Amino acid sequence: MTARVLVVDDIQLNVKVLEAKLSAEYFEVITALNGEEAIAAVNEQHPDIVLLDVMMPGMDGFEVCERIRANPNTTHIPIVMVTALSEAAERVRGLEAGADDFLTKPVDDTALFTRVRTLVRLKTMMDELRLREETSTQLGVSGAAAVDGEDFSNSKVLVVDDDSSDSKLIEEALSSYCGVTVEPDAEKAVELAHSGEFDLAVVSLIQRDADGLRLCSQLRSAEETRQMSLLALAPKEDNALLVRALDLGVNDYLAKPIDRNELRARVRTQLRRKIYQDKLRRNYQDRMVMAVTDSLTGLHNRRYLESHLDTAVSRATEGGKPAAILMLDIDHFKAVNDTYGHPIGDEVLVECAKRIQICVRGVDLAVRYGGEEFVVIVPDTTLDIAQIVAERLRASFAGQPFPVSADVGELPVTISIGVAITGAARETGEDLLRRADEALYEAKRTGRNRIVMAEPADGVAPQIPNSA
Fold first, then answer.
1. Are residues 132 and 29 both part of a single domain?
2. For residue 86, which of 19, 130, 136, 190 sits 20 to 30 Å off, Cα-Cα?
3. Which of 91, 113, 144 is the last residue of a domain?
4. Exposed, middle or buried: residue 292 (CB in 10 Å: 0-12, 13-18, 19+)?
């Protein structure tokens, strides 16, 4: 995986060394020699990751990190601080400033490439979610996702460590601001995690009776836990183990013995990212529903029908199981709006949708096509059965007046229906819809409150073979 990497260091030699290493691995490298240049490069060249020296004159790495995180347009860019400082307090300060990780000088090549690739993969995923968010916003079906404050009270952390002293330390350090569950048994931990309740798993890679790497692999590959954040615990300076863990999809790591403050900082970083990631996904899913749903009636809308109809027709043709399409139109609906106003007209449309949903099966697709027109797709049917369904719909309208909030209390409402069924091998969804529309027009022309069956496209009404 290639990426654009911004290297920031006030010592030219350090910049050249990192540039040469990264270029040899086919990364595109851009450079900056101070904080101001770094901020400008981030804003103008949009790197995928920043390797940021801490000790620089003027604006140091901590301030640069804070400024990148403070900008909504750059806050998602991963930042790795490259430093000669090895004290836990300095790492905590960097994490609180917004750093994702640290590399200690002199930089180990394997650690460098692994951390860069891991964080770039994360950014690629986040970029895709952000792009969907922006697209939804442009379509007018959403607002920008945001994480309000830093409230982790609803976040849940699963700790998997058979060292009771370490697991107790972790529980005490985290339980003041998030939910913590400790499970020393790896198999039971996987079962717990599959509940989907946890946002983060803190996993010890070295355990007496379990393989920590295998546990991380299981959590990352299972559907129920794929989106869970993973924080690995490993012996200090065991780079080979950490590299393998990062390759398996671990998000972050912490060296043992555990520093309480660094643990809190790294957990907060992962929970903050998980909350934002979940909100992006949830917003996108909600907006996709909004994009294909009629806001008044709750039925699918015309956009969804247009994307679904050709598939339904081709499946019916290829599978030998014909499908019918019913096009419904409320009779004299304009008079309702003109007499009682559009709010009463909306009440009629909502009641219309309810009666349609009562009359059709779960596998049938009900759509508000536009205005007072509705469409129902009935798969695996025959012309005779389609006519029975249409009559059930017609009778449900004509048989009982619609309740409305106007003084009149209720209104008589009828519908006209045109029915067409698949038949011709080359017929498209648009062809089928056109035949149903023509039948509907005929029903309206010849008296309303009636059903007209369209002639089969090939002159022969298809039948479903008797399964008996």
1. yes
2. 19
3. 144
4. middle
For 166-299, strand residue ranges (E) read 179-182, 200-204, 229-235, 252-256
How does residue 277 score in pLDDT terms, banded at 50, 70 and 90? confident
Distance of alpha carbon 445 from the chain centroid: 47
- Which stretch of DSSP H or E encloses residue 326? strand 324-330
Whether residues 281 and 310 fall in one domain: no
Whether the predicted pLDDT of 129 surpasses 70: no
Same domain, 187 and 267: yes
Residue 372: active-site member:
yes
- Give yes or no: residues 374 and 441 share one domain: yes
Domain range for 424 is: 302-453
Rounded to whole angstroms, the Cα distance separating 256 from 161 reads 12
Could you tell me the pTM of the whole model? Answer: 0.59
Q: What's the token pair of residue 237?
A: 């300076």
Predicted local confidence at residue 391, as pLDDT:
95
- CA dist 259 → 97, 135, 177, 230, 233 (Å): 18, 42, 17, 18, 11
From the list 324, 307, 320, 306, the residue with the least C-alpha distance to 360 is 324
Residue 390, pLDDT > 50, answer yes
